[in-house]
Amino acid sequence: MSEITLHPGVRAAMVSDSLDLLGIRSNVMNFEIKPLDRNMKIAGYAATIEFAPAEEFDPRDPYGPAIDFLDTLQAGEVAIVATGQVHKSAFWGELFSTAAKRRGASGVICDGPLRDVIQIFETGFNAFGIGTLPYDYKGRMKVTNTRTTVTCGGVSVSPGDFVIADIDGVVVVPQFAINEVFAAANARAQGENHVLADLQAGSTVREAWNKHHLL
Fold first, then answer.
1. Quick one: which of 35, 49, 58, 139 has the most CB atoms within 10 Å?
2. Residue 206: CB partners within 8 Å, gap ≥ 6?
3. DSSP label at 63?
4. Are residues 16 and 81 located together in one domain of the fold?
5. Are 8 and 51 part of one and the same domain?
6. 3-class SS shares of the chain: helix, strand, coil, % to 5
7. Are residues 209 and 164 in the same domain?
8. Structure pTM?
9. Which domain holds residue 36?
């Protein structure tokens, strides 16, 4: 994975705008996926895991596939937890967060519930999901795939895609478009700084637009 240089002002909305320029207009996840805290932000490469409803489990190793997935996480990766938006259980909590942070992961994005919210706060790990639920997934859901292309929050996500998330939402950048999208997003962040400065100095919106062609 190549390292991405991001202007400090780049936000999810700017990345979405940059995808629009390439005609990629449907790569923002479901608006119901929210950070546990409004200040949480995530940027990194997708590492995917997929769940499906199931009552059976191995009583000797009920979390085996999830454990194996967690132990493969690399620095700078984002755990993408695809659940089919089935809310039969939570899918991520304190211990998974602790393990993922220890391995250098950037955060988790789940299109289902989370749990152990206070404890996740205490780990300092960035977590996005749809609500919270105390239920364990054992006996309710099972891991069906890891590190394959999944649908999370209505968006197709493949390992190696780049994900950026903040309070505005979650944006997925396909691997083939990463360099072009982030070049455009970095330029937009710099340009918006100039627009903001002009507006704060008293320019009208029309004057700012005519000068920068950026809003």
1. 49
2. none
3. T
4. no
5. no
6. 30, 25, 45
7. no
8. 0.91
9. 28-173
Please give the biggest Cα pair distance in the chain. Answer: 68
In tens, the pLDDT along 159-205 reads 999 999 999 999 999 999 999 999 999 998 886 777 788 889 998 88
What amino acid is encoded at 166 in this protein? D
Q: What is the pLDDT of residues 91-120, one digit of tens each?
A: 999 999 999 999 999 999 999 999 999 999
Structure tokens at 92: 């991520």
Same domain, 130 and 54: yes
CB 130 within 8 A of CB 150: no
- Integer Cα distance of 215 and 208 in angstroms: 8
Q: 186-192 — which CB contacts under 8 Å span 24+ positions? A: 186/5, 186/6, 186/7, 186/10, 188/10, 188/14, 188/17, 188/18, 188/214, 189/7, 189/8, 189/9, 189/10, 189/11, 189/14, 190/7, 190/9, 192/9, 192/14
**91 half-sphere exposure, CB direction, 13 A CA radius:** 32
Encoded tokens for 81: 């937890």
**Predicted local confidence at residue 98, as pLDDT:** 98
The whole-angstrom separation of Cα 164 and Cα 185 is 12
- The residues, ordered by sequence, that sit 6+ positions from 168 with a Cβ below 8 Å of its Cβ are 11, 12, 13
